[in-house]
Amino acid sequence: MSDETPASYGRQRTAAAKNRTAIIDAAHELFAKNPLVPLSDVAKRAGVGIGTLYRHFPTRDDLILAAYRHDIERMTASADEVLQRQASAKAAFIEWFETLAGYIRVKHGLGDALHSAAAQQVVAESWGPTAAAVAKLLDACVAEGTVAPGHDPVDVIMLMSFLWRVAPTDEGVAQGRRIISTVFNGLSSPA
């Protein structure tokens, strides 16, 4: 006879969910610094054993995709918060895209894991929420008069994709800001 009760089963599920979240958060942080970080370092940072990590993520690619999905979900959900924090919708738009670019640069450093069929499904799933976040930012910019109405959010994402190609250096950041300025000149309402 099992000693497991509904209450103990609930505690185990809660602990497993906390472990999964801790692993994903640790992976996000460590992959940003070094995409080739050993998974034992991820487990250590998350405060779990390597067996626990592998129970949640049987392969390195599984963990990379989970961290990527989590980052994109967090990013797309942040549009409202960025709009509330910034003094202008234009500043929020710029901050949001610079943050997105940082996530994408990490993605490019993760190599083959993000070129698999499973990864392409994750990327495809992220388009809708990402386009919705960009639409929200565009609408706010239109309302403040810094962007002309009628721009397609997916077109803007494609246009802004230059950001994940600039170098993650001070020079790259400066180059990105110059190009963002050029993009805004093109998106702006006529004087």
TrEMBL record:
<protein>
    <submittedName>
        <fullName>TetR/AcrR family transcriptional regulator</fullName>
    </submittedName>
</protein>
<keyword id="KW-0804">Transcription</keyword>
<feature type="domain" description="HTH tetR-type">
    <location>
        <begin position="17"/>
        <end position="75"/>
    </location>
</feature>
<dbReference type="Pfam" id="PF00440">
    <property type="entry name" value="TetR_N"/>
</dbReference>
<dbReference type="Pfam" id="PF21597">
    <property type="entry name" value="TetR_C_43"/>
</dbReference>
<dbReference type="InterPro" id="IPR009057">
    <property type="entry name" value="Homeodomain-like_sf"/>
</dbReference>
<keyword id="KW-0805">Transcription regulation</keyword>
<dbReference type="InterPro" id="IPR049445">
    <property type="entry name" value="TetR_SbtR-like_C"/>
</dbReference>
<feature type="DNA-binding region" description="H-T-H motif">
    <location>
        <begin position="38"/>
        <end position="57"/>
    </location>
</feature>
<dbReference type="InterPro" id="IPR001647">
    <property type="entry name" value="HTH_TetR"/>
</dbReference>
<dbReference type="InterPro" id="IPR036271">
    <property type="entry name" value="Tet_transcr_reg_TetR-rel_C_sf"/>
</dbReference>
<dbReference type="InterPro" id="IPR050109">
    <property type="entry name" value="HTH-type_TetR-like_transc_reg"/>
</dbReference>
<keyword id="KW-0238">DNA-binding</keyword>
